[in-house]
Design goal:
295 residues; alpha/beta; globular; disordered C terminus
């Protein structure tokens, strides 16, 4: 560190997709790429409507003891658009009322972040829905951050409006890649004081994050989408062989079957324990607790 410089800021990309949804790499491939080809400190796999690959990536990272921390996240579809839940313990239900899912994220000790707001190309959330949550008096219904820096077309479309809205509402901004291919991971990122996942959480809650991202451009984005289409064709082929021909070809989530079974068992135990806690006398509401459970 040279004279006059402060400590290095941490670097996080908390919006990455794997082959379990519409990405093109498995959990282990993502982890190995991040470890060897990026300077990121913290990542989260945030598949659409799934967390299996995120749980597997976190398990492998902890087992190997590498420099990168992995957080479980999900990009879930609500009735008002896409929503990013970070630091999750269990999969979220899709197509629920927005407020219901935001509350569920906070009940799990997670962060509720709006990904690529205002996007006309994906299910980006509109201002009226964002404001509805912002004005809620329920202690579990509030925003933790807006994703203001996202290199995709979806992210660029509403970037200026998102930055203005964050300033208006006093919300922190984060950056993420929304990466669906290995070479896009880290193209959008959040900078925060510290280097750990818990440092990231504290920075979001304290409003001390900043974001940044590159610009992909039309040619690069076309190539990215082309690779996604080829992956989706393979998924459809497997679905057809499974449902039409009756072959034993399960969906490829990039997770070993024994780990899938273990994950689902632990998730069921967590949900059962939480239901029990809710029904016990004097159960709390969770609220804005920066020391909530970490995943």
């Amino acid at each position: 560190m040279t004279a006059g410089e402060g400590p290095r800021l941490g670097r996080a990309d908390m919006h990455i997709h794997s082959i379990a949804s519409d990405g093109t790499a498995s959990a282990v491939q993502i982890l190995e790429y991040v470890e060897s080809h990026t300077d990121l400190d913290v990542i989260a796999i945030a598949d659409h409507e799934r967390i299996e690959a995120a749980v597997e990536c976190q398990r492998i990272a902890r087992q190997r003891g590498g420099r990168v921390e992995v957080v479980v996240a999900e990009e879930v579809t609500t009735r008002s658009g896409h929503l990013l839940g970070v630091f999750l313990q269990a999969q979220l239900k899709r197509n629920q009322r927005l407020e219901t899912t935001v509350a569920e994220i906070h009940e799990q000790g997670g962060l509720a972040i709006v990904p690529h707001p205002f996007s006309a190309f994906t299910k980006g959330m509109r201002k009226h829905a964002i404001m509805r949550v912002h004005r809620s008096a329920d202690p579990l219904i509030y925003w933790d951050a807006l994703e203001g820096f996202n290199p995709s077309t979806a992210g660029r479309y509403g970037r200026a409006a998102t930055i203005r809205l964050a300033a208006e509402l006093g919300l922190p901004l984060v950056g993420n890649s929304d990466g669906h291919t290995l070479d896009t991971i880290g193209d959008g990122r959040t900078l925060f004081p510290g280097t750990t996942a818990e440092d990231y959480r504290r920075a979001v809650l304290a409003g001390t994050t900043t974001g940044t991202c590159v610009t992909w451009g039309f040619v690069r984005e076309t190539r990215i989408y082309g690779r996604q289409v080829r992956k989706q064709v393979r998924d459809v082929s497997r679905w057809g062989r499974r449902t039409v021909l009756g072959q034993d070809v399960p969906r490829d989530l990039g997770v070993p079957y024994d780990q899938l079974a273990l994950h689902r068992q632990r998730e069921a135990e967590y949900l059962a324990a939480r239901r029990g806690a809710r029904s016990s006398p004097g159960a709390g509401d969770g609220g804005r607790d920066p020391e909530g459970p970490s995943t």
